Amino acid sequence: MSTLLAAPTKKPRTTMSKARKPTTSPPSRKTKTRRSKATAQTLAGQQREISVSEFFAKNRHLLGFDNPRKALLTTIKEAVDNAMDACEEGGILPDIFVQVLQLGETRFKVTVRDNGPGIVKQQIEHIFGKLLYGSKFHRLKMSRGQQGIGISAAGMYGLMTTGKPVLIISKPSKKKPAHEMRIKMDTSKNRAEVVSDEVHQEDDKLFPQGTGTQVEIELEGKYLKGRQSIDEYLEQTAIANPHAHITYVTPGNETRTFPRSVDELPDEPKEIKPHPKGIELGTLIQMLERTEAAKVGAFLQNDFCRVGPSKAKEICQTAGMTNMTWVKNVGHREAEALYKAIQEVKLTAPPTDCLVPIGSKALLAGLLKGVKAEFYTASTRPPAVYRGNPFQIEVGLAFGGELPAQETARVIRFANRVPLLYQQAECCSFKAVLDASWKNYELSQPKGSLPLGPLVVMIHMASVWVPFTSESKEAIADYDEIRKEMKLALQECGRKLGTYLRRRKRMQRESERRSIFERYIREVAKSCEKITGADAKKLYEALLRQAERRTAQADQQLDDEGRILNETARLAKDEQVVIVPAQQPDPANNGNEIGESLFENPPKPQRRKTTKRSRKKPRSPRRTAKRK
Amino acid sequence: MSTLLAAPTKKPRTTMSKARKPTTSPPSRKTKTRRSKATAQTLAGQQREISVSEFFAKNRHLLGFDNPRKALLTTIKEAVDNAMDACEEGGILPDIFVQVLQLGETRFKVTVRDNGPGIVKQQIEHIFGKLLYGSKFHRLKMSRGQQGIGISAAGMYGLMTTGKPVLIISKPSKKKPAHEMRIKMDTSKNRAEVVSDEVHQEDDKLFPQGTGTQVEIELEGKYLKGRQSIDEYLEQTAIANPHAHITYVTPGNETRTFPRSVDELPDEPKEIKPHPKGIELGTLIQMLERTEAAKVGAFLQNDFCRVGPSKAKEICQTAGMTNMTWVKNVGHREAEALYKAIQEVKLTAPPTDCLVPIGSKALLAGLLKGVKAEFYTASTRPPAVYRGNPFQIEVGLAFGGELPAQETARVIRFANRVPLLYQQAECCSFKAVLDASWKNYELSQPKGSLPLGPLVVMIHMASVWVPFTSESKEAIADYDEIRKEMKLALQECGRKLGTYLRRRKRMQRESERRSIFERYIREVAKSCEKITGADAKKLYEALLRQAERRTAQADQQLDDEGRILNETARLAKDEQVVIVPAQQPDPANNGNEIGESLFENPPKPQRRKTTKRSRKKPRSPRRTAKRK
Prior knowledge:
The structure is a homodimer.
Chain A: H1 2-6, H2 27-34, H3 40-46, E1 48-49, H4 52-58, H5 68-89, E2 95-102, E3 107-114, H6 121-129, E4 133-134, H7 150-162, E5 166-171, E6 179-186, E7 191-199, E8 212-220, H8 230-240, E9 245-249, E10 255-258, H9 281-290, H10 296-303, H11 309-318, H12 332-344, H13 360-370, E11 375-380, E12 384-386, E13 389-399, E14 410-415, E15 418-420, H14 428-435, E16 455-463, H15 480-532, H16 536-550, H17 553-561, E17 577-579, H18 605-616, H19 620-627
Parallel strand pairs in A: 2-9, 14-16
Antiparallel strand pairs in A: 2-3, 3-8, 5-6, 5-8, 6-7, 9-10, 11-13, 11-17, 12-13, 13-16, 14-15
């Protein structure tokens, strides 16, 4: 059997290694003699360092450049995210200009311009010509970019596919003219190569507000509309960033504008230090090696958040040292003791003013703008912590209206206000939506699938460090703490939706009853007149009043809900729910109540029968009446 | 509305940025004054380089260290993959020893030892103490490792979680003693820090064959059995590597051995040069900048595969230059011309002796070893090419037997003989299985899901460069060319399964008929005797012969198929299908044929009725007979 197993059965129709021998030959020894036997020395000769940009150039799908379509989107995404971050850090309301120019069938030129604070000349080559270089990685601060890869990767992709350098024009100061640079990345060294470096007075025209940056990248791409398109990305960006004004010139040379709907910047997220409970032993040891503090006490107070003098003392004592112990005397054993102490000592959770959620109102506004539904609700969770990193979850729901009733729900995902368009299945938020038991909220949900029905779910995670599943930042890694918060937020919204759907069902039943009732009152009145000679008109009115009283719920409850509001008033009330009168047959209502009786108290079977028949032949009610 | 949108509705129960002002204040200007307004200069001050190991330390989930359980598996995976590669490169049949020692509730020590060629002292610190360092990245050669990240990342994770350095013992030469090193990674520099470096004579005992390497990593982990466990990884590794002998000592201190079932190494995969059609313009330009060749002709012949003198000439001419053109005179325009020329000129596909598939036989053997099924088939596709990289797809199917009939199929994935246990949903192979229309092969398949039934699908991709979706190498990126090949292989196997299932249905129907027939022959014979006085015994035998002839298919076809084989003979024939007699009721057969008649030609309804009744009351047949 063994010899038989050795060779592939069906010899691929191609030349195989010449060294190949018929499998009947005595095995192992032959094997050894016939192949180039590498030794430790020969292997050592082949060992080489790999530059990080070589690595990502070969693995560029990790950065979101899997295919031409995605590459085009990613390039714009990275440029726009940077532009927004820059503006906000500069305290400037973002004014973003995006242009996609089609040069050839598969060749595009992407231009993104902002009115941010600009970039000083010396930094440009590093920021755009070097992977893993940036201002955000080493800080714990909520921002869109965090890795220092994005924009330089886009430039690298452009260079690889077209050989063209990146063009950067930046004006960091109102007084000085803009400078213009062409930059190429040398992937073997992960270093920038400056192709040209000039000052053009006329470039200043690009920046009417005095400062700003423009990036121009030429790349192989593919332009498509629909899901996961540039358009969708910009629409969703506008939803999550109502304070930004975005102008988009499409390859078809149409201009789309997403106007600013808030004239105020979101609060500035604060930068924080790591929380002691969030770090691991190894990291602690590293921090001890690198700290500027000389004494352990100082180290704990300076390098961490939420550690004051008293807490520092407490930790040191629990670890069997004093806060005057010299850091350089802390060996591995002491470090472990310190680590254990940190776990034991009670510490306040990390500060959360480092988080700036979009806010339920903005979420609702966004959904109202973007989705034609009937019921809207949103909820913002209080901040929580994963691995010492504060984060905050927000969820918005939109139901009914013009949303497709037969499809599964649609999930719209955001991380630090950036739309996530790819790898949904891998995303923690998606899994959270699967987890939430939607059956409790009057929605059907096939096992292991999204709920069915006219539903849009919007999830936002704000954090000082979003744990993405890949450098392309398309999906949020599945941490228990994060998924839990997402589920809680979804449930908050789900419950409201459930209540609404149940109430709506009741209301529909009621109005069903009323309409059926009204259909026959006149008949009944007439017949009574014929029989008893009572005044039909009076009788009719009496019955009608009855009917209205009986089925009062139908409208009364809607008034309770009190939320048939006109466009402008919608957000006036500080509520997290918005209801728009349904325009179309309700998909959630299976309408099986129609056959029910006209009266409050459960009818006798025979009575029901007649009503049933009655719907078929309108004349029957008289008979029913007679029988009375 | 705008002001309303600015602030989150529900103020999180936590301190918010002190700078916060009531939203009634006049917007933008106030915003600006109240926040630390960053300028280009201040921003520049924050820009910093990020070391690749800092990056991956913070994003270690990208490397497969998301959680303690996965971390433990990944560590073993990386170590074993390296060990196997080393042995094969050294032309040595792998003898791998794996031990997982539990030190504390969540602390483990992983030891992996091989009998490979060993590592020279100077290389150890780089290989284990530096990310992005290795011998495989810059070569186009089929191997398990390819990025130079894996094992050093495992060491880094160990260091981060336990503060303990990695221990490496290696013996690169039979003559010299083994050397022992302790290594720590300095993530801020992505450089190794040698903690200790000694020579212990007694270490030699670890390497009876004279050479080898042992790695010891202490880390925070979690040990669980079942799916995605170390055990599953090693089982599948054994299936795909019948030439390896693996010994595994579990945390429970049991020893599991996976013996070698082939005494011959797989053919040695050849290293190849990039194929001209596989590279992009930018890459071509880079290669031109870096080539050692002086003339374009030489450049094309030396730096690429499949370009001989004549082809080189042809390309140069098409590009409007000669193969004597100096490389240094090739500017951007010339490069583009050259690139276009390459696309136009016909070139043979890249060589494929760089690929060493497992082979259908080995696949079948593996499945037979690992899965208790009833029907087995496998197929190996001829090599194909994606982005200039040759690759080859193999598929194996196992159906029926003891496999769970009510669940969806199980997919077992391999890349270059390494089992892939995570991120199934993202994997090209998984998508290919979804794509294949299993309904054609007699299996039910809910929309967008795996086929239902007792089915195991095994997919292997062999390539000089497997495009993984992440550094953790858990899923294959979704290239059209790859998915297509996978679908074709699946279909080849699917068709065989379909034929088998259809034939089996027919056979069952036949034996149904026979058994029903036989049930009544005696009765019929007797009654005939009573009526006509014919000899019952004779009649009975005659009828019996008839019955057997009529329903001959039942056994005859099985004999045609001729594949009821005993364990040893199973693989004797060079076939890609193996059938084991079913032990249990067939799940694919819905058994609705039972009610059918006893005879070839469709029966009259009344006759069928009687047969139906007859099954209830055994005495009825006589009546039927009488009526005749």
